[in-house]
Design a protein that fits this description.
With about 400 residues, the protein is α+β, with helices and mostly antiparallel strands. Strands 1, 2, 3, 4, 5, 6, 7 and 8 form an 8-stranded mixed sheet that branches. A hairpin with a 2-residue loop joins strand 2 and strand 3. Helix 8 packs antiparallel against helix 11. The termini are far apart.
C-alpha cells in the first residue's frame, strides 16, 4: 500500500523558467510596454493615480504571474518576473516599480504566511484581482499596533507607501503590543478602503510620479485576526524577500538604462547632419558619438548578464524552501548587492550621458529624454548604494554578513 504524503511544501516555487515561459511573458510585457510608452510623458506630467495603468497590468495577466497555477495564476518563475520588470522599466519606470513592488508584496503569502493558510490567500488575490501595495518603510518606524480583543488597532503614519493609492490591499509590518503575540513583528493585510485609513496623495517628487507612493495615516484602524498574514521572522527562506526586492531594483535600473539607450539611438539616427568639425557625414557615423554609445551599451550588457544569472540563482535557491541555510541566503544577498551597485551606477550614468550624444535639442520638454534620468535618479536613492558596497566588501574580505533588515 502506498501512503501519500500530506505535508505541504514550504514554498510553491520549483525549478527554473524554460525558454517557452520566458518568450511568452517577454511578448506580453513588450506589448504592455509599447502601450505605456505611447503616452508616458503626458501621464507623467499629469501625475495622477495610475488606476488605468494597473488595469492594463491586470488584463495582461501580469498581476498573477507568480501565483501558482493550481490557484488560477500563471505559475511562472521569478526570473520571468524580473525580466517583465526590466522590460516595463524601459518604457515607464513608475509602472515598472509598481509591478515590482506588487510581486514582492504579494509573495509575502510565501515568505510570511504559514503553509496551511497560503492557499486561501492565493485564492483571494486571484479572485479579487488584487494589486498589492505596502506600507513598510523602516525610516518611519512609528506604527503602533495594539492587541484589541481578537484583533488589533493600528495607529501612526508611513511615507513612501508604494502602490497604496491604487492597490486593493496594503501590507504593513508592525511590532504588536499586548495580547498573544506581544513583542512579535506581524505582517498584516488591509484593504485600501478600510475605515480609519487616510491616504494622502502627496507624491510630488522628481521622478517615479505614477508609483502611487503616498503617505498613509492610520487612525485607530481595526484589524481582525483574519487580516494577519504571518510573522516576520529570521527564517532564511523568509528573509529572501529582501534580496528579492533588491534584485527587482537592479532589473528596474537596468531597464531604464536600456530604455534611455534605445531612445538615444532613435534620436541620434534621426539627425541627418553632423557636427561642423566632424569628418563623418552624420552624427551616428561620428567616431566620438559611436565610442560613447559603445561604452554605455557594453556596460549595460554586462549588467544584463549579471542580473539574468542572478534571476536563475534566486529561483534555484527558493526551490530549496525550508532547507535554505543562512549561509546560502547570505551569499546570494551579497551577489545581489553587487548587482545593485553596478546597476545603480550604470543606470544613472546612461540616463545622464545619453545627452552627450543627442545634444542640446534633446533637452526639450517635448522629447522627454529627461524622464529616464529623473526616474532612475529618484529611485536609486531608495537606500544608499555605498552601504551595498560596504556589504560586498565586508563579505569578500572577512565573510561577514550584514544584520537582517528590510534593506539587507
Amino acid at each position: 500500500m502506498t501512503v501519500l504524503s500530506t505535508e505541504l511544501p514550504r514554498v510553491p516555487y520549483t525549478g527554473n523558467a524554460d525558454d517557452a515561459e520566458l518568450a511568452n511573458w517577454r511578448a506580453v510585457a513588450e506589448e504592455v510596454a509599447s502601450n505605456l510608452a505611447a503616452d508616458v510623458l503626458e501621464r507623467d506630467r499629469k501625475n495622477e493615480q495610475p488606476f488605468a495603468e494597473v488595469r492594463q497590468l491586470r488584463e495582461a495577466g501580469l498581476l498573477n504571474l507568480l501565483v501558482p497555477a493550481e490557484f488560477g495564476g500563471a505559475g511562472a518563475h521569478w526570473e520571468t518576473a524580473f525580466e517583465v520588470v526590466r522590460i516595463l522599466a524601459a518604457a515607464d519606470g513608475s509602472i515598472s516599480q509598481l509591478l515590482a513592488y506588487h510581486y514582492i508584496n504579494q509573495s509575502g503569502i510565501v515568505f510570511y504566511a504559514p503553509v496551511e493558510s497560503q492557499a486561501a490567500w492565493w485564492k483571494r488575490t486571484v479572485q479579487g484581482g488584487w494589486l498589492w501595495g505596502a506600507s513598510v518603510n523602516p525610516v518611519d518606524p512609528d506604527l503602533r499596533l495594539t492587541a484589541d480583543g481578537n484583533g488589533y488597532r493600528l495607529n501612526g503614519s508611513k511615507r513612501f507607501s508604494t502602490g497604496s493609492g491604487v492597490g486593493e490591499v496594503i501590507v504593513i509590518n508592525a511590532l504588536v503590543e499586548g495580547g498573544e503575540y506581544d513583542g512579535q513583528i506581524l505582517a498584516l493585510v488591509l484593504p485600501r478602503d478600510i475605515e480609519g485609513l487616510e491616504i494622502v496623495d502627496d507624491w510630488d517628487y522628481l521622478g517615479q510620479r505614477l508609483s502611487a507612493s503616498n503617505s498613509l495615516n492610520y487612525h485607530n484602524v481595526r484589524l481582525e485576526a483574519g487580516d494577519l498574514l504571518g510573522f516576520v521572522t529570521d527564517e532564511p527562506i523568509s528573509t529572501l524577500l529582501t534580496p528579492g526586492i533588491q534584485l527587482a531594483f537592479a532589473n528596474f535600473y537596468l531597464g531604464i538604462a536600456e530604455g534611455a539607450l534605445a531612445r538615444g539611438k532613435q534620436i541620434l539616427l534621426g539627425r541627418k547632419n553632423a557636427w561642423l568639425f566632424a569628418q563623418a557625414e552624420t552624427y551616428s557615423q561620428d567616431p566620438i558619438f559611436q565610442r560613447t554609445v559603445g561604452e554605455l551599451k557594453a556596460r549595460t550588457s554586462a549588467v544584463a548578464a549579471l542580473t539574468e544569472k542572478l534571476g536563475r540563482k534566486f529561483d534555484a535557491l527558493l526551490s530549496k524552501g525550508a532547507h535554505v541555510t543562512q549561509a546560502e541566503r547570505a551569499a546570494l544577498a551579497v551577489d545581489i548587492a553587487e548587482a545593485k551597485v553596478v546597476s545603480t551606477e550604470v543606470g544613472v550614468e546612461v540616463a545622464n550621458r545619453i545627452f552627450e550624444v543627442t545634444g542640446s535639442s534633446s533637452t526639450a520638454n517635448s522629447v522627454g529624454l529627461d524622464l529616464y534620468w529623473r526616474n532612475v535618479r529618484t529611485h536609486s536613492l531608495h537606500d544608499p548604494v555605498d552601504y551595498k558596497k560596504i556589504e560586498v566588501g565586508a563579505y569578500f574580505l572577512r565573510g561577514e554578513s550584514q544584520p537582517l533588515s528590510l534593506y539587507t
